[in-house]
């Protein structure tokens, strides 16, 4: 049996200092819905757990200022059910309410959701030497490439990794240009979400733009009138309690019946929450109809590289995006 220390931090400073003092093998734990899973699978083997669930003010939700602010410790269920979020930013509420199950959302935090690891089956098989995985053991190889890759990414992949970024919430946050608020031993910083998730490249194990010991304290989302004309469409193998095969977050800012600015991001198809700039450019200045929606969907996947079993994601993803654009477009009328 491996020993494990467990400490419950009361505030941000205590969490960061305790982590730094614990050193190698320390992990923050919030709702525990992912981390405990990975520990049972043998993928994560922490020696010290610093519980941040009771950090003072960590669950703050504030929609009254210039930005929407969600404390990292806010529960997924509480943000999904917030009245202002549901009315003015349905893309955010829907991305959360379509994730996991009600029981999980009652436990899991929006900060933990940002930091969850991939569901790639080879990564999650933690038996030592079972399958090579560059994310789990850097330099060991990637069993998914040329293997059972139905769920793998078609965008943002490298020769070292094709694992899909699993979260729904980060996709909606990407569409709305959120910033991730972080505190660490050297102070606080605010990171645009576009820079928070790394492409796998040669180093798939480096997934986030924060270092060990840095604590995500909150998420800020600029307010936008595109919020009301927004939606999150998620296609999965079954209608609940499943990760996305393809998903799309769309928010449309309008000038009359023309799109002034489209905010578009994709999930379930890429190695990180994927901003679909090509689709945004195509939609700009246009009225929304089926033809332009499908053209935007196809443009978003122009650079897609399928593996052996996942080419279907290209057409599925393009049509998912087209349907989401149509839904957001109907909200503008
Ligand atoms: C059966 C099942 C189905 C699921 N389906 C979906 C789905 O469809 N869509 C979806 O998006 N998600 C899904 N999830 C994932 C779920 O949403 C995550 O497990 C949850 O959001 C993680 O939050 P948590 O607070 O429990 O994180 P934890 O498990 O406590 O932590 C997760 C990771 O984040 C780190 N961490 C947590 N908080 C912080 C912080 N503030 N700062 C720095 N690091 C931090 C931890 O160290 C750990 O590495 C599913 C999970 C399960 C078990």
TrEMBL record:
Keywords: FAD, Flavoprotein, Oxidoreductase
Molecular-function annotations in GO: FAD binding; oxidoreductase activity
InterPro entries named among the record's database cross-references: CO_DH_flav_C, CO_DH_flav_C_dom_sf, Diverse_Substr_Oxidored, FAD-bd_PCMH, FAD-bd_PCMH-like_sf, FAD-bd_PCMH_sub1, FAD-bd_PCMH_sub2, Mopterin_DH_FAD-bd
Limits of the FAD-binding PCMH-type domain: 1-226
Superkingdom of the source species: Bacteria
Keyword Translocase: no
Keyword Oxidoreductase annotated: yes
Entry-linked Pfam families: CO_deh_flav_C, FAD_binding_5
PANTHER family linked to this entry: XANTHINE DEHYDROGENASE SUBUNIT C-RELATED (PTHR42659:SF2)
Protein name, entry field: FAD-binding molybdopterin dehydrogenase
Species per Swiss-Prot/TrEMBL record: Sinorhizobium meliloti CCNWSX0020
């Amino acid at each position: 049996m491996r020993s494990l220390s467990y400490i419950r931090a009361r505030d941000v400073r205590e969490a960061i200092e305790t982590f730094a003092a614990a050193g190698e093998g320390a992990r923050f734990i919030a709702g525990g819905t992912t981390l405990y899973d990975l520990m049972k699978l043998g993928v994560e083997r922490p020696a010290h757990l610093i519980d941040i669930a009771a950090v003072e003010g960590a669950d703050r939700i504030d929609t009254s200022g210039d930005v929407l602010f969600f404390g990292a410790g806010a529960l997924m269920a509480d943000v999904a059910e917030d009245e202002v979020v549901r009315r003015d930013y349905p893309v955010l509420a829907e991305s959360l309410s379509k994730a996991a199950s009600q029981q999980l959302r009652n436990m899991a935090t929006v900060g933990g959701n940002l930091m969850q690891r991939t569901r790639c089956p080879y990564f999650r098989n933690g038996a030592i030497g079972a399958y090579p995985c560059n994310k789990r053991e850097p330099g060991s190889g990637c069993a998914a490439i040329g293997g059972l890759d139905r769920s793998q990414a078609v965008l943002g992949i490298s020769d070292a990794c094709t694992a899909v970024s699993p979260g729904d919430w980060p996709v909606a946050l990407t569409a709305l240009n959120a910033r991730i608020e972080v505190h660490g031993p050297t102070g606080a910083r605010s990171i645009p979400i576009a820079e928070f998730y790394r492409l796998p490249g040669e180093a798939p194990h480096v997934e986030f733009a924060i270092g060990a010991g840095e604590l995500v304290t909150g998420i800020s989302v600029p307010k936008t009138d595109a919020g009301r004309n927004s939606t999150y469409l998620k296609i999965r193998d079954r209608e609940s309690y499943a990760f996305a095969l393809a998903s799309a977050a769309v928010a449309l800012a309008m000038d009359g019946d023309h799109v002034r600015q489209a905010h578009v991001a994709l999930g379930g198809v890429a190695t990180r929450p994927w901003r679909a700039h090509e689709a945004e450019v195509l939609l700009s200045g246009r009225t929304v109809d089926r033809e332009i929606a499908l053209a935007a969907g196809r443009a978003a996947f122009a650079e897609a590289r399928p593996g052996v079993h996942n080419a279907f994601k290209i057409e599925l993803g393009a049509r998912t995006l087209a349907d989401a654009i149509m839904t957001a477009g109907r909200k503008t009328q």
